[in-house]
Amino acid sequence: MTAVAARPLPEIDAAALRRRYFRFMAVPTAVDLLLIGTFYVIVGGWVVAPVNVALTIAFLGAANLAIGTRLFEPIRRHLAGDLDFEAVQRGLTQLPLISATVTGAISIVLTLIRFSLPDGYPPAKGVFPEPTLVDFLTLNAVFPVFYFTLVYFLVSDYLSHLCEFIFRLSGDTLRLFFGRYALKLGIALVLVSVVPLAVITADLFSYEGARLREEILTDVLSALPGLAIVSFFVGRSLLRPVRILSRAMTEVAAGDLTVRVPVTSNDEVGEVTGRFNDMVKGLAERERIRETFGKYVDAHVAATILAGPAGGGLAGETRDATVLFTDIQGFTTIAEYVPPDQLIRALNEYLEAILEPIRKHGGTVNTFIGDGVFASFNMPFECPDHATAAVRAALDIQRAVGDRQFGDLFAFTTRVGVATGRVIGGSIGAGERLSFTLLGDTVNLAARLEQLNKDLGTRILVSDATRAACTTGFAWRDHGSILVRGRTEAVTVHSLDHLAPEPAR
Fold it and tell me: Does 221 score more than 70 pLDDT?
């Protein structure tokens, strides 16, 4: 992928994002001070408190923030516009894990030093009873696990907001996924359920009597605030990406295909979110193709083709249908004297006017033939009482055109030919080019009737089969049997008075 220059964020936003990360990295310090305070309130021995507070500030505070500054440096450079997103994506994805690992390692050192104080720190001599080996080992394992989990979910929550901000600004989003949702959930469950039980179990095997009650009370009261904080951020970091994705799905289901969702987690949920974006992009592209395709092929035909097998068309079939042709009288002469841009504008306006009645009555526009329209009723899509529908469409076309000036310049006189009978329809073509079309004598007859209007001085001519199939009595005029070009036998034709009132439906 080609690297793209990073876009610098507004300085106030970049600074706020940096501060937010460092605030999250400082949370373990605040939690540890809270645990220390809870411990000394229960047990006493405040003489040792200053050194423990100093150790917390030095290790979980200063050392953690110093290393966190180095971890955040590439991200800071990206926010400043010095690095593109590709250069920092891996660091972003691994930020929760690395930050948590650093804090966990620091807490191991802190815990070992802290539990060595009663023997090695003179003011502490005799203040606290010596812990048993089991209790000592358990606490040395629990504290690093606790702080690792706390920081992991804290920074995961921070990463969610950071990725969302970058996405809104530049559209960049995570595409690397190293985390596992099941593992995250498992760690959270272990910390919330197993760890407190392990500490209490160690107390049960280590102490008895008043000392046992005091140890259990201390452990429970110390664990409650810490576990509450961890549970809060576990819920936020695990559920927030799901909620964002769920809201986006709701918007897409409502028809909004412009939705894109920032990938805010480095696990399977983030991967699904990325695929969701790709899916919506594909749906939007499909919709754009359908809309564009529908401008060159009738919208119903386009939708049917797109819903079928890839590369397929409409299968051939034969059925009774009614075919309608239109043409503008004297259009060739008009085209000789009118500037092309004016002519095209007027013609587009005219075609829009005559297409609406065809669609309204259930017809399908098969193609444009110069200034004419070739439409069908009951092929390829069902149209009950198709002969009547086609005749009504022909009448509405004449009413839509009337004496109207198209392009504020031209009044077009429209001729319409309508024929009913057996029609063959399907996709034809070769290689990569296909077109849906209708074939058969009925199609040829409708075209000839449209042309015959010129000789008879009429606007709408229909075949005898069309008149017979109409279920409504229109204002017909019989023209007898006429020999039309391309046929060896004469056909009976009828004209329709478009100015006569249409019978009630």
Answer: yes
Contact of 393 with 357, CB cutoff 8 Å: yes
CB within 8 A of 135, min separation 6: which ones?
202, 203, 206, 207, 215
**Cα–Cα distances in angstroms (integers) from residue 417 to residues 444, 460, 490, in the given order:** 10, 6, 16
Per-residue confidence (pLDDT) for residue 3, from 0 to 100: 36
Q: Once rounded to an integer, what is the mean pLDDT over residues 334-339?
A: 82
Rounded-to-integer distance, Cα 102 and Cα 71, Å: 10
Which residue type does 412 have? F
CA distance 455 to 458: 8
Q: Across residues 328-346, what is the average pLDDT?
A: 84
Mean pLDDT, range 307-332, rounded to an integer: 75
CA distance 432 to 448: 32
398-401: long-range pairs with CB below 8 Å, 24+ = 398/459, 398/460, 398/498, 399/498, 400/353, 400/354, 400/356, 400/357, 401/350, 401/353, 401/354
Distance CA 446, CA 425 (A): 15
The full set of domains in the chain, from first to last, is 11-239 (no CATH), 299-496 (3.30.70.1230)
- 150 alpha carbon, distance to own chain's centre: 33
Compute the distance between CA of residue 72 and CA of residue 98 in angstroms, rounded to an integer. Answer: 11
Q: 139-187: per-residue pLDDT in tens? A: 778 888 888 888 888 888 888 888 888 888 778 888 877 777 777 777 7
pLDDT at 280 over 80: yes
Q: What six digits make up the tokens of 93? A: 């994805």
Q: Which residues contact 285 (CB under 8 A, 6 or more apart)?
A: none
Give the residue carrying structure tokens 């059925």. 319
Q: How many percent of the chain have pLDDT more than 90?
A: 15
